[in-house]
Design a protein that fits this description.
The protein starts with a helix and ends with a helix. It folds into 2 domains: about 20-215, no CATH class; about 235-290. It has helices spanning about 1-40, 45-65, 75-95, 100-105, 110-120, 130-150, 160-190, 190-235, 235-245, 245-255, 265-300, 305-330. The protein contains 12 helices and no strands. The longest helix is centred in the middle third of the chain and has 43 residues, at about 190-235. The protein is elongated, with a radius of gyration of 38 Å. By secondary structure, it is an all-alpha fold. Belongs to the SLC35F solute transporter family.
């Protein structure tokens, strides 16, 4: 009994120690996210990508060395990773609008959602005192919301504390689903497999979402690459006239991608703008040819200063010779 008691005591101390390591790592993540937000950088998906990439690089090789089949179907890991990535995105984005203290306190909403999910999904039962403690936490979190609503952030007036609080609460729902799913997988299956698949599919989900945002970067790259050619071949006026049709391309995207109906005047406007571009382009070519012709003619008939001087000096010499001849005759 004494040995068992000592083992239980050491186990309890180990769990508490590991729990504090988890808490410290979460605080470090919160500090990093808050610091990045204060620098004006908004990249929650990139931060989540780095986390899942490290998990993939460390645990996937271990899983591959075992050469074992997955104990849980891969699509469950995909769902779990998707929910986890969304939770990380929402909570990390909340630092753009709220303070680090509000985000870390409201993060405790995960406890409430986890209790509800484990009660219905895993069949876990809780005592009256556990529900009382959870209710007390909710009361304290309500005070955080009240504080953010009544006292706007004086350090940065551009922040919107209530929006940040809403993002945190939405993120805690995702965290609760992720934590409960991980609990089920870890207790029923292998821990390394869970972490490896969570990291691998987390990288996949983050990459897909980042690629959607990268589409803007690719489009901007095309814009700045092609614009100099248009300016060199035509000019700024034609460029800005061409940019008018970007609204029409937006109409096409609305019709074919969003499946929305468009008023017929949009199509008429597109045709009118296209006709205007053609008229301007043709007249610009004609004016450019006329300018080039006039410039060439002016260069052809232009007299050099040296030629004028030589002609003038020659005429003076001729007059002197005539005067000498007339004086000789006399």
């Amino acid at each position: 009994m004494e040995i068992r008691t000592k083992d239980d005591a050491w186990r309890l101390l180990l769990v508490l120690f590991l729990g504090q390591l988890v808490a410290f790592s979460m605080a470090a993540c919160s500090f990093a996210s808050s610091f990045i937000a204060n620098l004006g950088v908004d990249a929650p998906l990139a931060q989540s990508f780095c986390t899942h990439l490290l998990l993939t690089l460390v645990y996937v090789p271990i899983l591959l060395r075992r050469r074992q089949k997955l104990r849980i179907p891969w699509y469950w890991y995909l769902v779990l990773a998707f929910v986890d990535v969304q939770g990380n995105y929402l909570v990390t984005e909340a630092y753009q609008y709220s303070s680090i203290t509000s985000v870390t306190l409201l993060d405790c909403w995960t406890v409430v959602w986890a209790i509800i999910l484990t009660w219905y999904a895993l069949g876990t039962r809780y005592s009256f005192w556990q529900f009382l403690g959870a209710g007390t936490c909710v009361a304290g979190l309500a005070l955080v919301l009240l504080s953010d609503a009544n006292t706007p952030d004086a350090q940065d007036p551009n922040k919107i504390p209530l929006l940040g609080d809403a993002l945190v609460i939405a993120g805690t729902v995702c965290y609760a689903f992720s934590n409960v799913g991980e609990e089920h997988c870890v207790k029923k299956n292998d821990r390394v497999e869970v972490v490896a698949m969570l990291g691998l599919f987390g990288v996949l989900v983050s990459t897909i979402q980042i690629s959607l945002f990268a589409g803007y970067g690719i489009a901007g790259f095309m814009f700045y690459t092609i614009t100099p050619f248009v300016l060199e071949m035509s000019g700024a006026t034609l460029l800005n006239l061409s940019l008018l049709t970007s609204d029409m391309w937006a109409v096409a995207i609305r019709v074919f991608f969003y499946q929305q109906q468009i008023n017929w005047l949009y199509y008429l406007a597109f045709a009118v703008v296209a006709i205007g571009l053609i008229i301007y382009s043709l007249n610009e070519s004609s004016s450019a040819d006329a300018t080039a012709t006039s410039t060439e003619a002016a260069a052809h008939y232009e007299q050099l200063p040296g030629e004028d001087n030589s002609t003038g000096s020659g005429s003076i010499l001729d007059r002197k010779e005539r005067k000498q001849q007339e004086a000789h005759i006399c």
